[in-house]
Design goal:
heterodimer, A: about 80 residues, Mth169, Chain: A, about 35% helix, elongated, B: alpha/beta, two-stranded antiparallel ribbon
């Protein structure tokens, strides 16, 4: 089973990388972009096929290491 | 045992952590021995126990290549569990730059670091105002003294939630704030976008201090700046006072 974890800065925290990309897109003529958030994508290959157990374990990984929950939100997607 | 060990026993002993990617460890060793007149001891990150120490210094650098987040991997090194026990027993811990980032990730200090507002790595002298001189790290400073110190970082944009910021302020834990040469704290004098212009904080107990500027790079007239001595020598005074000796703890 694979898990994909996306980590982004929390809403309300200024994302300077996102702002830089937003301005660059604007200068390329893409005026329709209202906001950009840049984050991290972490792919995990898991030994288990137990979805509930995997979800709980990856959540614990996020809380302990993969994300800093003071500044970041995370989203977990599991793929068989 | 001999005159030499007697002498060594009399010297203050400061441990300097070394992670893969630490690069200010030798500068710290130099100032501990040459400026503070103490005994410096490198401690590799794999060590699970600390020797008998009077203080722990976590130097700057790029521990583990700053992978994931600055300090995020170093925080799980065996030595950090020992440093946490040392800090909880009241021992003095000083984290400089990446050392500060590691202390934040380890939860020994509150908050987190964001990328600098400018997205640039900033390497230059800044001015900081001493907001609290009643700490083990600032006793030699005058109230409100402005120090010129160098910074060199890409992730020094301190952030914490409003409730934690209030408690930091209420507890006088904000020790250094970025300021102009005249001591005014202004947005223009804030190099990295740090919340409330915070450059250095202590924990609630006051024995753990993290700061982004580098006192070890500014402690000698030869280098054109001695302001960093005040922080290093304040720490030495605190060690010698004996008031911050870590309480003995049972090995776990």
């Amino acid at each position: 089973m694979k898990a994909t974890v996306s980590v982004t800065l929390k809403r309300g925290i200024l994302d300077p990388q996102g702002q830089a990309v937003l301005h660059a897109l604007g200068s390329l003529g893409y005026q329709g972009v209202k906001d950009v958030r840049v984050g991290k994508l972490i792919e995990l290959e898991l030994a288990t096929n137990d979805k509930a157990g995997a979800e709980a374990e990856v959540k614990a990984m996020c809380e302990r290491l993969l994300a800093n929950t003071i500044i970041e939100d995370y989203r977990i997607e599991l793929v068989d | 045992m001999s005159w030499w060990t007697d002498l060594a026993d009399a010297l203050s002993r400061i441990g300097i952590l070394v992670f893969p990617g630490s690069n200010c460890d030798r500068d710290c060793h130099h100032v501990v021995e040459q400026i503070m007149g103490a005994q410096a001891e490198f401690i590799w990150h794999k060590e699970a126990l600390l020797p008998q120490l009077d203080a722990v210094l976590i130097p700057g650098g790029f521990s583990y290549g700053d992978y994931l987040r600055t300090g995020a991997i170093a925080r799980f090194s065996p030595v950090m569990a020992a440093v946490t026990r040392f800090a909880e027993a009241g021992g003095l811990v000083l984290g400089i730059c990446n050392g500060f980032q590691i202390l934040l990730e380890a939860g020994l200090l509150p908050g987190a670091m964001l990328r600098n507002r400018s997205l640039s790595f900033i390497c230059r002298d800044v001015h900081v105002r001493v907001e609290n001189r009643a700490t083990p790290f600032t006793g030699r400073c005058k109230p409100g003294q402005v120090l010129k110190l160098p910074i060199a970082h890409a992730d020094g944009n301190y952030y914490t939630d409003p409730a934690t910021l209030s408690s930091l302020k209420a507890g006088n834990q904000v020790v250094l704030r970025y300021c102009a040469t005249d001591g005014q704290v202004t947005p223009a004098a804030n190099p990295n976008g740090s919340l409330d212009s915070i450059a250095g904080i202590t924990n609630a107990a006051g024995n753990v201090f993290g700061l982004m500027p580098h006192p070890e790079r500014s402690a000698e007239a030869l280098l054109g700046n001695e302001d960093g001595r005040l922080i290093l020598l304040s720490l030495l005074d605190s060690i010698k006072s004996g008031r911050f000796s870590p309480k003995p703890v049972m090995a776990s």
